[in-house]
Structure formats: structure tokens, C-alpha cells
Amino acid sequence: MEKCVPEVSNNNCINVHIPDDTAFSILSKLPIKSLKRFGCVRKSWSLLFDNHYFMNMYRNNFLTKDHSYYDDSTVFIHQTFCPFDGYYDDQTFELYCVSGERFENRVKLDWPNVKLDPIDRSKEKYDSGFNIIGSGSVHGILCLHCASHKNVILWNPSTNQFKVIPHKEDIVDPREFGYDRHRDDYKVICQRDIDIEEIDGDHDVQDEEDISFNPYITVWEIYSLRSNSWRKLDIDMDHVYYMSDERLYIDGLSHGLCAGKIARQKEKESYLLSFDWGNEVFLKTYIPSDIIDGRIDYFSVWIRLVLLNGSIALILNYTDSATFHISILGELGVKESWTKIFTVGPLPCLEFPIGAGKKGDMLFRKTDGELVWFDLNTQMIEDLGVITSRFSCKIVIHKENLLTFEGTNI
């Protein structure tokens, strides 16, 4: 066994040699943010992500560590049904509370019984259920939205308490839902796009080349449950093109995956757009081109944003090779902190990632529509015996909260 032997140098400084096994054991338990910074201490440490032995150790520690995000949590499965000959507002939604290793215990939950304001009067009695904004409840509260109606609802499934948010003209889809810990307030933000052609010609918004990609300017509105009102969000933010419907909420911030055109170039630059609910500001974290190439063919790759054991993770599924690449964000605002830590496959039987559970379990849909658990640690696939339709479901992590908020009892 190698010993740590102090060495006395000529300048009377003592250098201690640390065996690689000991160093790897310590470093593999660090978050990516810290690990990146330690790369300047020793050259070999800057190359750790290329070291197969170290990466196996790091992946195991990453997947097995406990995270408070999952303490006392319940898994919901949210299913979407959309007829191929229908429209977006013809979608219907169902919500199930599931438990057991194979989801053998499934209970369908009733949506809040609330009268909504239909966009189309012919669908006034159309019972579609609700879409859920985000990948989990926020302190036990879910934010619901129905495409065929105007309203947004805050709902606590544990107490069956809900609040219908007052409708505001020109506000169509809620973008994010979160909690302001400084003011003890639940908030919703919406994006309203204004066509540049409708703006007075004296406004020099952008050149014609950029308008062809982005013909809108964006106004952001924010709702406060505490004041029960909407107001304009005073933020200078360009039009936001969301690449997917996934929204993550953790530690007072919401996150979505977006893309923007690089000035005077054909490719798009991808970034994580985060919203700080306490300070009401946006933050962009750009994604390196070696993770998402700006010239990528979005028809040949599935892209999913998930929370993987408490960390923001980006999953790219390349359909031609049936491989999955999973990258973790180490630090908000730092482009270089994105790190690819998993490459899975080829697994041609897996079609699309649905979401992440606990301890490295990933929920996938197979090509035949069946849901399966995939263990990132063991690389084992476990069939769940649950069949779902195409483009149809996601995992929602819910934590029970029996405290009341200002709302209406069902």
C-alpha cells in the first residue's frame, strides 16, 4: 500500500504526495462546479473527465448520493392524448399517482372541478383535463393550463384546493411557475409576442435579416398570488424560442431550453434560460457546440431537459445511432461547466426519454409504446407493463403539502 510521504524541499516547504486512488476517491464526490475549479491544481486533474477509471467512480457517486429534492416525494405520470387529425386544443390529459417498483399501484386523480372561460364557445363543455407547467409541484402546488380555455389554475392535489388566476387579455400560455421565497409568494410568468409589422415604423427594432428569423418583440407579464394581479415585467429580453415544453423548478429558479439565432449566421445557439423568482431576472447559460451543434437537424435528435438526482441535465437521443448523451450543468451562467458524463447505447429498443426518477432511474418509452425503467448505474432495462401513446407522458415529482394557500376548496 502506497503511503503519503512528506517531502521537504529546498525552500523548507513540505510537499505531501497524495496517491491517485485517494485523490480520485475525494474528487469523485465533489460537484462538477468544484471539480472544474480543482483542475488548475494539477495538470492530471484537468483531464479527469477523460479518465475512464475516474469517470466510473464519479458516475457511481453522482447517482447514489442523496438529494433533498426527492425526500418524501411522490411520482405522478401525466399523460397527453392528441388525435392525429385534431388540433392542439383537442388534447386531453390524465394524471396518475404511481407507486411500487413497477408502477403496479396506479390511481387516476380527478382534476379540480372548476368552471373555465372557453376560448371557443363551441367547446364550453369540453372536458379535456389540464396540462401541467413544469416537471414537479412547487411546495405541493401544481400550475395547470388548458389549451381550449383561457384560465390558469393553481392546484394542491393533497388538499383539493385550487385558485383560478384572473384572465388577462393577450396572455395565452403560461411559461413558468415558481415560488418567491423572499416574499412568500407563488408567481406565474407569461410571454406575449407582438408582431414587428404591427409596430410603428419609427421603431428601429432590428435589421431585416434578423426579422426573418425573429419577427416579434416580447412583453413579459407576471402574476402574483399574494396581490392576485398581473403586471408587466420590466425586463429587456428578446423574443424567446423554447425548444421544448420541459420546465424545471429547483431552489427558487425555473429553467427552460431555448435557442436563438447567432447574428448574421444560419445556425442557432442553444442556451438554458433561467428565471430567478426572488429577483425577477433572467439568466442565460449557453450550451457548447460540442453538446448541441447549432447546425443540428432537430428531426434526427430528441432533446430533453430533466432533473437528474437534483442536477440540471440535458439528454440528446440521436435516432440514427440509438444512443443517448447526458450532460450535467455545473454552474449557472458558465458555458464551460456543461459536462457530458453519460453515453448510453446503442439501445434501438428505446425511443424517447420521459423523465428521471430517483437514484439514476430514467423513464423511457420503447418503440412499441411500453414504459420502462432504465438504470444508469447497471444499464439494466425493466419493463413496467404500462403502454402509452406516442408523445404522451412525463414524470411529475410531487411533494405533499397540507398547508393552505389562498384559493377555493373543491
Alpha-carbon distance between the two ends: 67 Å
| pLDDT < 50 stretches | 1-6, 202-212
Structural class: mainly beta
Strand content bin: 35-45%
Q: How large, in whole angstroms, is the Cα Rg?
A: 24 Å
Name the shape in a single word: globular
Mean pLDDT: 78
What is the β-strand count? 27
What level of helicity do the residues show?
under 10%
* Major sheet description: 5 strands, antiparallel
> Strand sequence of the main sheet, in spatial order?
6-7-8-9-27
Number of helices: 4
Describe the overall structure.
Residues 138-379 form the F-box associated beta-propeller type domain. This is F-box associated beta-propeller type 1 domain-containing protein. Strand 14 and strand 15 (253-261) form a beta hairpin. Helices cover 8% and strands 42% of the residues. With 410 residues, the chain is mainly beta. The protein has four helices and 27 strands. The strands form seven sheets. Strands 6-7-8-9-27 form a five-stranded antiparallel β-sheet, with no helix packed on it. A four-stranded antiparallel β-sheet has the order 5-4-3-26, with no helix packed on it. It has a four-stranded antiparallel β-sheet with strand order 10-11-12-13, with no helix packed on it. The chain is globular, with a radius of gyration of 24 Å. The longest helix has 13 residues, at 52-64. Among the domains are: 26-65, no CATH class; 77-295 and 387-409, no CATH class.
